[in-house]
Every structure is written in C-alpha cells, then in structure tokens.
Amino acid sequence: MTSESFTQLVDAHYAPLYRFALSLARNGSDAGDLVQQTFFIWATKGHGIRELSKAKSWLFTTLYREFLRGRRRDARSTSLEELPPGENEPLAHDVDRVSRIDSAAVMSALHSVEEPFRAPLSLFYIEDMSYQEIADALDVPIGTVMSRLSRGKAQLRAAFLRAETPVAKVLPFPGEGGARAS
C-alpha cells in the first residue's frame, strides 16, 4: 500500500472510527489513541487484505478488539466505566438526527448502557451500519447483533426515562421499526 492510498484510507475512515471509539472509550483522548492504534495495526498488517472493500469492516473490528484488549489490561487497575463523567463529556456530533434532543443527554444515556450493548447501538445509530455490517465489525453472528441491539435499546430507553428526557418518545426502540437488515 502506498503512502497516498494509506492517506486516502485514513481520510475516508478516520471520522467514523473516531465516533465509534468515542462511544466506547467515553473520552476524546482514549478515542484518539484507539483510532491511532487501529491505523498503526493497519499499517503493519492491513496489507494482508486482498479486497480493499473490506477495509472498513476490518478497521472497525480491529478498533473494537483493541478497545476490549485495553479494557482487559486496565481491569487490574481502574476501568473506564468506574471513572466519573468528566466536565468535558464528549458530544456525539452525528446524534443530530433528532434535533430536539440534547446530544449530551444522548451520550450520557448511551454511556449508562452496558458495554456489550453500547457498541452495537453506537454502530447502528451513530455510524448507520446494517446488522450484517455490525456483525462483521464486532465478529459476532447477526442474531447476536439483533439481540444486543434489542437489549441495548431497552437499557437506553430506561436511561432516558430515568433522566425524564423526551427522547424516549422520539427514537425508535424495540418493535418500533428502524431495522437495517441489509
């Protein structure tokens, strides 16, 4: 891979990877580190991919695995979930789909969802991925994606109801449509 094609790959995928990393890591610094590590791994191992059309899935899968690896490593000390939310809580810029909702409230609710369900929710709502794309990125069966989305949406709705935010009436939740099965 030439440096020009690597630059094009970074330009094409940096923003979506960063948004996904931000939804997982919960802070900009860790998200940036995850994305940087993902592109480093691509630079050292990505040349093994024969079809560049699969680069997006490979990058998301690698980022998610790096997140999990780091989380396991950090579990001996302080995990990210145990840290109190900072004053500079990240905002999800793509949550503008529902303009009536405060993005900080959405991210706060998303961060209250258990991690196994948060990753598929982020990929579904923020990155607009299909069930199959999420399954490929997380390296799980499509049925697992559907189950995690359903349980994650239920946790998300409960978080919105606890916060008494009107979002519970605006976003589609289980049984209310919004599926992207392709």
How would you describe this structure to a colleague?
This protein has 182 residues and is mainly α. It is built from seven helices and no strands. It has helices at residues 3-25, 28-45, 55-74, 103-112, 115-126, 131-138, 142-162. The protein is globular and about 50 Å long. 31% of the residues are buried.
**Beta strand count:** 0
Identify low-pLDDT runs: 77-84, 86-100, 173-179
Number of domains: 2
CATH level-1 class of the largest domain: Mainly Alpha
The structural class is mainly alpha
Which whole number gives the mean pLDDT? Answer: 76
Instruction: Tell me about the largest β-sheet.
Output: none
CATH homologous superfamily assignment of the largest domain = Winged helix-like DNA-binding domain superfamily/Winged helix DNA-binding domain
CA gyration radius, whole angstroms: 16 Å
What's the helix count? 7
What distance separates the N and C termini? 30 Å
- Please identify, by name, the CATH architecture of the largest domain: Orthogonal Bundle
List the helices and strands and how they pair.
Elements: H1 3-25, H2 28-45, H3 55-74, H4 103-112, H5 115-126, H6 131-138, H7 142-162
Helix pairs in contact: 1-2, 1-3, 1-5, 2-3, 3-6, 4-7, 5-7, 6-7
